[in-house]
Design brief:
- The protein is an alpha+beta fold.
- It folds into three domains: 169 residues; 47 residues, SH3 type barrels; 83 residues, Alpha-Beta Plaits (2-Layer Sandwich).
- The protein is 59% helix and 16% strand.
- The strands form three sheets. A five-stranded antiparallel beta sheet has the order 6-5-4-3-7. A three-stranded antiparallel beta sheet has the order 8-10-9.
- Helix 1 packs antiparallel against helix 2, helix 2 packs antiparallel against helix 3 and helix 8 runs antiparallel to helix 9.
- The longest helix has 36 residues.
- It is elongated.
Length: 354
């Protein structure tokens, strides 16, 4: 007896192969995967958990597709039907295989990021890179599929190459931003959460995309900069600053006595040393100005926080003002003193008013 061009024995063989495949897959899931889950739960690493999850979500469905395909191969079909079955199997095989490859790359990338500091922000930054990698993998997978379907991919690859050159010439700015994104990701001149200053622009990095980077400025608005602009400019990254070096000058009037001038460096030094998380460096009488006697002072604030630095600077300035007031030392400001010779005035010609 024949049915759809196949004998009863061929149908029985196909059904037995299909049921046997399903039974083997169920045994594999119930015993092997179950034991693997128990073992992975006892370990501290996440690699074994990833492998078990990948097998369960991608490899097992591929086993089901293979069971269907090989059981149908036991039967004889018309050429068109057999071709359709073969194409469907290749599509399913390529889909699950590419899913496994992308999952492995994703796991490798994020496991590398987790070992570094500030990993959560770096994961957000890596999403753009992951999209590019997935696109490349899927394009290569489709080319592989077309080649296995019996088509000549040489012409396709040549066309992609020529088209790629044309696209590259037409979208130089976009590709420049894309390569700049890779530079930012791997070289890490700044990361999400860093406060940076680029030329006359400043703000906190909120997002690093494939083409643009977005900053939140001190005014509250969002500033969007191209990646090429950021990689070509000099970036001041204040988030990575461990301490601030502060230089300030002050001037006193020329009528200040020599004894008072000697006291000024010691007064300022004592004030700076009295502050918490502030390290004194130097204090010097630096020069004779046009209208003042100038002093220069240097100290370090052992914190990158801007508000902390401003608080300490305010305390130091207020204490200096109080100490100078107590010692009767006058601050200088731009003035000009005219000395008149009385003898010269008496000999001068009288001034006539009209």
């Amino acid at each position: 007896m024949t049915f759809l061009g196949n004998t009863t024995l061929a149908w029985i063989t196909a059904i037995v192969m299909l049921l046997g495949g399903f039974l083997a897959i169920q045994i594999f899931k119930k015993i092997i995967i179950y034991q693997l889950k128990k073992l992975s739960g006892r370990t501290a690493t996440s690699i074994d958990d990833f492998l078990v999850t990948t097998i369960e979500k991608s490899v097992v469905p591929l086993f089901y597709v293979a069971a269907f395909y090989f059981s149908l191969n036991a039967l004889t079909f018309p050429a068109a039907v057999g071709r359709a079955i073969h194409v469907a199997f290749l599509f399913a095989f390529t889909f699950f295989l590419l899913g496994i490859i992308t999952a492995i790359i994703r796991q490798f990338l994020f496991s590398f990021i987790h070992k570094q500091t500030n990993s959560e922000t770096k994961e957000k930054q890596a999403k753009g890179l992951l999209i590019i990698i997935n696109i490349i993998i899927w394009v290569l997978g489709i080319v592989f599929l077309i080649d296995n379907l019996g088509y000549d991919v040489t012409t396709l690859i040549t066309g992609l190459g020529i088209g790629g050159i044309a696209i590259a010439l037409a979208a130089q700015t976009i590709l420049g931003d894309l390569f700049s994104y890779f530079i930012i990701f791997f070289d890490r001149p700044f990361e999400i959460g860093d406060f940076i200053i680029v030329n006359d622009k400043m703000g906190t990095v909120e997002y690093v995309g494939i083409k643009t980077t977005r900053l939140r400025t001190l005014g509250g608005e969002q500033l969007v900069c191209s990646n090429t602009y950021l990689t070509n400019a000099q970036v001041h990254n204040y988030k990575r600053m461990e301490q601030r070096r502060i230089i300030f000058q002050l001037g006193v009037v020329y009528q200040t006595s020599a004894e008072q001038l000697k006291k000024i460096p010691e007064i300022v030094k004592a004030i700076i040393l009295s502050k918490e998380s502030v390290r004194f460096d130097r204090a010097h009488f630096s020069g004779f100005g046009n209208s003042s006697l100038d002093f220069e002072f240097v100290y370090y604030v052992e914190s990158a926080d801007f508000n902390f630095y401003m608080d300490r600077q305010q305390e130091i300035y207020l204490d200096i003002f109080t100490a100078f007031e107590r010692e009767k030392i006058e601050f200088a400001y731009p003035t000009q003193t005219v000395f008149v010779n009385p003898a010269a005035v008496s000999d001068a010609a009288p001034v006539l008013e009209v």
